[in-house]
Specification:
It is built from two helices and no strands. The termini are far apart. This is DUF3149 domain-containing protein. Keywords: Membrane, Transmembrane, Transmembrane helix.
């Protein structure tokens, strides 16, 4: 718990959490897009 307090009390820590979150969302969207694209090609 102390580690989270130290991480969130610093601007660099907050920025790193935001970057990790945004990167995870972008990767998830890309993976779902490519899966849908691959499935639509299989149907044709």
């Amino acid at each position: 718990m102390e580690l989270w307090k130290q991480l969130l009390s610093d601007d660099v820590g907050r920025l790193s959490i935001i970057v990790i979150s945004v990167t995870t969302v972008i990767v998830g969207v890309c993976i779902s897009y490519f899966i849908k694209k691959a499935n639509s090609r299989d149907d044709q």
